[in-house]
Amino acid sequence: MDKCLFAFAFGLLMLGGCSARVVTVPPGPLIRVEGQPVSIRCDVKEYTGPSEQDFEWNMLKDAKGQKTKIISSFDSRYSDQSYSKRVASGDISVVRLQDNEVELKIAEVKLTDAGFYECQTPSTDYVISGNYMAQVQLTVIPNTLKVSPKTPPPVISEGSDLTLSCNVTRELIHPTYLSVTWSVKKGTTSEEILTYGPQGDVVTGSRFARRYAEGGIRLVPGRNGVFELVISRMTTSDEGNYECNGTEWTHESGGNWIKIVESTKEMGTVAVTPTGRSLNVKASPSSSPSSTSLVLSPGNSLTLMCGVTADNLPALSLEVSWLADGREIITMDRSGVVISNTSSSGAQGKKGEASLERTETGDYRLGVRGVTIENGGNYTCRIRAFINIEGRRWYMTAEKTSNPVTVKVSEIPSLLGRLGLLSACSIVCAWDQDFFPAHWFREEKGETPRSALLTQDNRKEQFRLPVRLSFEDMTSEPNFTLTLVAEVNPQTTAEPTELACRVTNIANLPLGGRLGVSWEHTSLPGLGGDPQTSHPIGSLDANGNLLPGSIYMERMKSGALTLSRVQPNTFKLRILRTQEIDMGQYVCSVSAWSVNSQGDMVKTSENRSSPLTVRWDTKRPIVNVVAKRIREASVGGSTFELGCSVTTQNIGDAGYSVLIQSQDSLDSTVRTIMTLSPDNVVQHGGATDPNRRDNLVLTKSGAAEFRFRLAGVQLSDRGYYWCDVTAWTKQQPGQAWTKASSSESNKIRINFLENGPSFSIAIKSDDSSVYPWETAKMECSLSVSGSSPKTDDLAYEVKWFFTRLRGGPASVQVASVDRFGVVRKINRNSSSDVTIERKDTHTYLLNIFGTQDSDSGEYFCSVTPWYLSASTGAWTEAQELTSSKVFLAVKFAVWDSLKLPLLYGASASLGVGLFSLVLGLVCAQCCCRNTAHLPRSRNKLMDLEMD
Hints:
9% helix; Immunoglobulin-like; disordered C terminus; 66 strands; 7-stranded mixed beta sheet; single chain
């Protein structure tokens, strides 16, 4: 009896030694704010007895002080008198989350609630082992958070900047942290713009991410808790009621950020005035700003002014166009480039040459030199106002057209015949009888003025117009001065070049005369060209016809090199992407053209500018890449986001290709996850699981910024990630990319700890040895501990492996079942068959039917658990588990193989023996029956001897 009791006690002791009860609460101290809700979780593990455990909560003012009973999960009379009213009102409650986990909740914590909270579980174990209670310190601080926003202006002009200032402060009693969030509310919908903190990081709303990345939204942290958010170039879509939110955080052990109190204050409603309401455009002659009509003679110059006013004029980029009778004649785009339509085909020599320039802010001057009758009409100025939003996208906010200005051009018959002057000199004066009632005069050299009265046949009234004639310079050649300057001088290869050839001090240019230009280039020594030979780039004749040089013809066709006349006296040479061979000396030659007696344009003179040298120091292109973590993957199933910023030196405009690479450790194999080409084509690398490609995103977020996003990270994703960026350039538009330089960024690590449920694996076999053609069964079972999810939130991927006793590889996969229940069997060199059977949620069977001697060996299973994460709502892959090995022997049936031969042999031996015996008896009876009997001797002695 004593031996039985001893064995029973020893069994209980061994059973208790297998597991020890563990009660856990969050690591402290917990810092909370007065008046805010508080929740403290408590769970118990490694216990025996019923699955549903009970909990009791106690409170101590210090770690070893007297306990005060708060609440129990099973005893409604457990609470102390000091807590009974709060428990009854629901201010203090306990909520069961799982069989082994509860949560203590305080609706509005008080300063007096500060202390140590103890979670205790009554024992249901066979033996006492482990801990049955755990404490956590709760610190309650006063609510000192203050949010004081500054009221923004209620109305601002479109394109202006809006500054949202918010003051967020708190008294630093314990180590807490602040964050500030700006949001805009339209109707009942509120949208976050930007959040700063609590770690000093910046998180933008989805609609404002690109705008922030390109500088359209700027954060300006100030002093003493003042934070300013500047929204540049406001549009009508930015209207709304702006709010400022201040939040106080605490950083608890384990790396969790806990929001302990927040306050949201309205800043005010901001309305954006559209540009069209304040935009005004007025056109007038430059000589008479108040007039709306103008009369000119052929050959005169037309000058009109366009005045633009707006409340937000400095924030606007204007496109200015002049129209004659509704037809566009010249335009200055928003970047200042002038495009003239007066030299269109079929109009050569019929209309004057137009020019457009900006004289000051809001004032634009139209000049038409050498007007003809066809230049008459109604002139209007059209303004298109643009606002640059999100860094690169232009938005046209308004368009207006000015009042018309009426321009009339009239021709008067030649005065030469009326006055008897030399036929070599002709004077053409134009008048309109409705505008020019006048007199004509002639003043000869050295004489007093005399009147020449000219009377129209159809009018009785006389017209006088003073005319001074001078003949001394009529035959002189035109004279002018040239100035060649570099308005844009390249500093590195691939940067633009812009040369301007200006004509000044023009003298003796005849009426109707025009200017043409030709450009030449001489290479520098050692750059692939002959330094002694000048190569013609191209020319513009008097009619504006472009004649490209043979060497530069292809570049002009592609737009990489352009020749233009931006003003009547200014010519420009532009190279979009300057190459090293373009270094050298440039010369412009300007020629004067006039109309001969047959009406053809002929060159009368030509001036050549001084050479201008264009060169730069050729430097090695450099690419620098910096990677930063935008979103941290702290738990399985969360999202990891990596940003890479690229800066270059000595490259100019470039395109970029990006490789997102990773490795498990610093000395492991490098894998390519995704690639992005310079033409923004995304491809997945060979290391990408095809089933997870929807979780991978690689985008270009800025001119030289890229973002990589990995959604639903798993344990297999842990490792180092970085960007490998290559800069590419194009010598000319349309050509192939040329590699300039490449570089790798710093490495960002994903290294989260799995805080989900814990899994363990075990394997067992019904029988370690079977006979041939029998069925062998092996069971792979898993157990879950920790925060066990629901059954529907668990899935397993199971693989079975086999190691042959002699020969073959170390281990061969036999069969597998994925987490969706799809079974796959591997081709085997055996006549046996295998199946995988799922007994329950955590148990899988491997059946081997018709076992053979080749099936002998060691078997083990490998399981990858998947569970639905409660924090992220995504399926999370846990760490792969591998079981121990079980041995299966297929016996050789010796008795079964020998029993029939033995039986046959024994039967044959017995038969032969019996046959021999019978045969001997028969022979003895038959052969020895007639033998003679010899009588025994009477001699006794002889008989004895015979015996």
